[in-house]
Amino acid sequence: MSLDRYRTAIVTGASRGIGAAIVRQLRIGGLDVWAVARSADDLSELARETGCRPLALDISHRDAVLSAMSGLDADILVNNASALVRGGLSWETAPDAIDQLMAVNIKGTLNCLAATVPGMKARGRGHIVNLGSIAAVSPIPGMPVYAMTKAAIRSLGQTLRIDLHGTGVRVSEISPGRVETGAHLALVEDREEGRRRFYDAFDCLQPDDIAEAVMFVLGAPQRMDVSYMEIVPTDQSYGGSQFHPRAR
Questions:
Q1: Alpha carbon distance 92, 95 (integer Å)
Q2: Which residue in 90, 105, 192, 207 could disulfide with 144, CB within 3.0 to 4.6 Å?
Q3: What are phi and psi of 34, to 5 degrees?
Q4: Which of 6, 146, 228, 238 is catalytic?
Q5: For the segment 121-171, what is each residue's pLDDT rounded down to a tens digit?
């Protein structure tokens, strides 16, 4: 496994959780990494820790994304940025929540592709890694619109492989189950209750687990494209509908 063919990476949603873990692993691997998120303060701290290049940016704004990313000559794009808002029944999802999910999870991903894929094609080298979710393929109550956006990412990855056929640019989707990032706490009003409900009683995946999976697909031989990888906690059933609590 080697990343020698790659020089520069862009990671979105990089200020914390999975994104920050991916930045750390890529920097250990010797790559020049642009860490993208809206929080300049969090990015500055990550830059001091890892030596990454911070880029404070709202990826839902295409002109800003094209201006900031088009000249970076990125060999790797990790589309990790994702909104996760309070859910409920599909027909009761608040319009502003719908807008946020669509803006980040779908528009943001497409904007980043628009800024980076033309350069990858021209150089005949590149790898796009999309962070999906098991919610894309299995119903998980309370997250209908989020799941819809992740299903769109699933479809997008399959279409990208057709669009990029013969270019040498690889496309991978990593689809995790429950990862202990803190994002789930947005699903409930009481954060402590959220931690008890989603994390405390369960042996969840950790951000580093997903970062290591990203490094695996990037380091695979060029002849090999890990097109789809589903990763779930050992105690989470297929589809994610059931989670066995750990012994206290």
A1: 9
A2: 90
A3: -95, 115
A4: 146
A5: 999 999 999 999 998 998 777 789 999 999 999 999 999 999 999 999 999
Tell me which residue has tokens 């862009």.
10
Domains of the chain, first to last:
8-229 (3.40.50.720)
Tracing tokens 């592709």 back to the chain, one arrives at 113
Residue 30 identity: G
Beta strands in the chain (DSSP E): 8-12, 32-37, 53-56, 76-79, 126-131, 169-176, 228-231
Which of 215 and 238 is assigned the larger pLDDT?
A: 215
Nearest to 199 by CA among 240, 243, 237, 147: 243
Which DSSP string do the residues of 191-223 spell out, in sequence order? HHHHHIIIIITS--B-HHHHHHHHHHHHHS-TT
Q: What is the pTM of this model?
A: 0.91
- Return the exposure string of 10-46: e unless at least 16 CB atoms fall within 10 Å of the residue's CB, then b: bbbbbbbbbbbbbbbbbbebebbbbbbbeeeebbeeb
Phi-psi domain of 28 (left: phi exceeds 0; alpha: psi -120 through 50; beta: other): alpha
Place of tokens 């080697």: 2
Structure confidence at residue 180 as a pLDDT band (50, 70, 90): confident
Q: Is 199 a catalytic residue?
A: no
Res. 208 pLDDT band, cuts 50 70 90: very high
Give the residue from 155, 23, 22, 131 showing the smallest Cα distance to 82: 131
